């Protein structure tokens, strides 16, 4: 963010009433917490690679989502088998 954008944002914030300032504060705290978590995760990733515990970290594109469907079974439906076994 450029200095001009920051100055404009601060100018706008200075015009807010107390309730609006509290809303801005809550939003900024949330953004700061998220940024801190991302920073912590990046430091952990760097430490793992640096220590040699992992050779490289997988990229999100490296991991293909798996589609799971029902597993075919033979015989009676599984729910009936479970009920029968419990008796």
State the end-to-end CA separation.
Answer: 67 Å
Shape, please?
elongated
Unreliable spans are: none
**Main β-sheet description:** none
Order of helices and strands: HHH
Mean pLDDT: 87
Content-based structural category: mainly alpha
Helix content: 55-70%
Rg over alpha carbons:
26 Å
Strand content: under 5%
The number of helices is 3
β-strand number: 0
Question: Could you walk me through the main structural features you see in this protein, from its secondary elements to its overall organization?
Answer:
The protein is mostly helical and 87 residues long. It has a domain at 1-57. It is 63% helix and 0% strand. The protein has 3 helices and no strands. The chain has helices spanning 3-14, 18-51, 78-86. The longest helix has 34 residues, at 18-51. The chain is elongated.
């Amino acid at each position: 963010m450029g200095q001009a954008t920051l100055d404009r944002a601060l100018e706008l914030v200075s015009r807010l009433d107390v309730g609006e300032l509290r809303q801005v504060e809550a939003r900024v705290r949330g953004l700061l917490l998220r940024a801190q978590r991302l920073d912590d995760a990046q430091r952990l990733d760097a430490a793992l690679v640096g220590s040699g515990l992992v050779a490289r970290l997988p990229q999100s594109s490296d991991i293909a989502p798996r589609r799971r469907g029902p597993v075919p079974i033979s015989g009676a439906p599984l729910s009936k088998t479970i009920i029968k076994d419990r008796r």
